[in-house]
Amino acid sequence: MNSKTEKRIALISVHGDPAIEIGKEEAGGQNVYVRQVGEALSHLGWEVDMFSRRVSADQETIVKHNSQCRTIRLTSGPVEFVPRDQGFQYLREFVDQLLEFQKENEIKYKLVHSNYWLSSWVGMQLKQKQGSKQVHTYHSLGIVKYNSLKSIPPVASDRLRVEKQVLETAERIVATSPQEYEHMRSLVSQKGEIEIIPCGTDIHRFGSVDRETARKLLKIDPEAKVVLYVGRFDPRKGIETLVRAVRQSQFYGSEKLQLIIGGGSTPGNSDGRERDRIEGIVRELGMTACTILPGRLSQEILPTYYAAADVCVVPSHYEPFGLVAIEAMASGTPVVASDVGGLQFTVVNEKTGLLVPPQDIPAFSKAIDRILTNPQWREELGQAGQNRVKDRFSWDGVASQLDALYTQILTPTAKEPVLVAK
Ligand code: UDP
After folding, report:
1. Which of 26, 32, 116, 395 to mutate to test the pocket of ligand 1 (most atoms within 8 A of CB)?
2. Does the interface ipTM go beyond 0.85?
């Protein structure tokens, strides 16, 4: 492919707007992934349009990230936040709007990369209606998620059906870890083409601050023992496990111990309710003096928080990939994580951090203390983590793997006859 117009792609992320603030309800890893992939692809010469659903009247319709990469917001359903489990009913309108946008702008996307099952349905419609080729990233697999839930939402049957259909029909599925690949094969379908390309992180930004400077900036005692959580307030994230584990730490009761729980929330929404619940547990356990909840941490300040921490904890019950783990590692901070999903791929047990069974409070407590009691080992784990991320999880590396995949998909093969005008 050498003509510029051929390197055009639509990234579809119906509920994960790549241009909004990250770290609030339902805005997390997927938004970061789409935005970073989009920008990195544009640097490789792609014209990138990222489509998302408009959720507020104040939002601009088009946000330009650079001359070749933009977010385009389509109006489908009410112009307000809609939880993702209620989004399926608005997808038909989303497809119509996308087709209309193409018509108005005289564009046709030959290639779409959909993100999360809702967008996969949109991608399948474009494939059906205009022969677009489809690449899909799940970000979360319904069947795995539902296995870890007590009650299953009404949308489950649609989700499972769509997730199977896209696996069997897309030109390629991107699994972000070997664990996700295994889940697809064992739990969804044996059919379909899957390639493993991980998520990435900004190895220049994370790791740009040293610990001493970070602690000065955040006014944290150089001698403090800092345990950090970063992420959304969602029961699946296991923040309760972390709080209870810190309460059992051998450092609990010393003035040096500090627990920082970073993440945004909106009062009254589901993340606001989870934050209230967590604060309730903190109070009940008498931990208010050693616990800080700074709210949403911007992507600009995050490297400073990671660098200031002795250990970053990712206590999720289930985690398809877990960007926070590689962000912490890129910052030279060891990770204690649940031994699940993508975390088993990113965190190397005893080398870049520790993996422990999900929801196992004593095991988390012990793992945190092993790192807090051994500063020399902490440095070694941190260094090994940083090296691992540089080698395997830079956005530039991820984007060049995607670039190769897209190029291969768009290049006509012998099996697909090319129509040549006589
Ligand atoms: N994040 C952020 N500010 C916050 C909390 C989270 O920018 O206050 C970002 C975090 O840096 C990471 C993403 O949100 O890039 C969370 O991604 P992850 O894959 O860990 O979890 P998900 O949200 O996809 O479940």
Report:
1. 32
2. yes
